[in-house]
Structure formats: C-alpha cells, structure tokens
Design a protein that fits this description.
The chain is of the alpha+beta class. It has two domains: 96 residues; 101 residues, 2-Layer Sandwich (hypothetical protein PF0899 fold), CATH 3.30.2320. Strands 2-1-3-4 form a four-stranded mixed beta sheet. Strand 3 and strand 4 form a beta hairpin. The longest helix has 94 residues. It starts with a helix and ends with a helix.
C-alpha cells in the first residue's frame, strides 16, 4: 500500500502543480485582459473628453456669435428708435412754431409746390380757421416776388392731416403735409441724423 500511497501522492502533487500553473496562466491572462480593458477605457474616456471639450467650445462659439448678433440688432433697433424720436421732435417743433413763423412755413411750402400759381390751398380745419387767409396772402406775395403767377385760392375743403398744406388743381394734388415732409426728410436725412447722434 505504501507504493500506492506514494503514487497517489505524486499524482496529487502533479495535479496541484498543473492546477497552479493553469491558475497562474489564467491570472496572467486576466491581468492582461484587465490592463487592455483599462487602457481601452482610458483611451475611450480621453476621446470622449476631447469630443466633449470640442463640442463645448463649438457651442460657446455659436452662442457668442448669436449673442453678438442679438447685441448688434438691439443696438440698431435702439438707434432707429432714437432717430425716429429725433424726427418726431422735429415734427412737434413745426406744430409749436410761433404764429408768424408757422404762417411763413406754410406759405413757403405753397411757393415750393406751386406749378401753375392757380392752385387751391387745402389746410386742416384748425390751420384754416387760425391762419388760412394769412397763408394765402403770403403765399401769393412770395409767388409774385419770385416772378410767378400768383392766383392761389383758399379751398373751402379741409384736410385730415396734422399740419402743412395740400395744393390742388383739378384732380392734381401736391401734398406738403407735415407727415409727407417728415417721410421725405426721413428718406434723405436719416443717415445724417444717425451720424450726428452716434458719432
């Protein structure tokens, strides 16, 4: 039996040694797999971080450009409002001219707009009642001084405009109302007004 025990003991020892070798190989392979997994995970992590940083930088750049555009739009809108306010104030000043200056303003508009010198002057109701006859007389005098026919008449009709005049002859109208004059001034002077306001 002793021989059998020795053989059994040797078989067990060999089996243990083989098992230990297999385990050692398995441990080494597992370590290699773990190391490769760690390296792959680290590489993937770094790639994701680079992509994330790039995406964040791109988004920040887009948002910055959008913010700059919005700022420029807001500034332009503000400037347009201020230019419009300047024209509104100018229109308001016309309405508050002293009586003689306002009469001269209306008569001068008639002089500039008259083609034949025989048109009717159409005023709004308030201006017609307050200074209609004075405007007519001064406009005819200015036309005569300019060497033009001076036969303007005051229309029986009144217009629905804030101030200024309309010259009418038959179906032909020449509008020199405050609204029309302001619109024309806006077209020709907006850039100059803006330049003066925002040097």
């Amino acid at each position: 039996m002793k021989g059998l025990e020795k053989i059994t003991a040797r078989i067990e020892a060999d089996a243990r040694r083989d098992a230990e070798a297999v385990l050692e190989t398995a441990r080494a392979e597992a370590e290699q797999v773990r190391a490769a997994g760690d390296a792959a995970a680290k590489e993937r992590y770094e790639a994701l971080m680079r992509e994330g940083k790039q995406a964040a930088a791109d988004r920040l750049a887009r948002l910055s450009r959008a913010a700059e555009m919005e700022e420029k739009k807001a500034l332009l809108s503000c400037r347009q409002l201020l230019v419009e306010e300047a024209f509104e104030r100018a229109a308001g000043r016309i309405k508050t001219l002293p009586h003689d200056a306002y009469v001269r303003h209306l008569a001068t508009q008639a002089l500039r707009a008259s083609v034949t010198g025989k048109e009717e002057i159409l005023l709004n109701e308030a201006d017609k009642n307050v200074c209609g006859q004075e405007v007519l007389e001064l406009a005819n005098r200015l036309l005569a001084e300019a060497g033009k026919k001076a036969e303007l008449t005051l229309s029986e009709e009144t217009g629905r405009f804030s101030g200024g005049i309309v010259l009418k002859e038959g179906s032909v109208f020449a509008s020199c109302t405050n609204e029309v004059l302001m619109d024309q001034a806006r077209e020709s002077l907006s850039a100059a007004v803006a330049a003066g306001l925002f040097q």
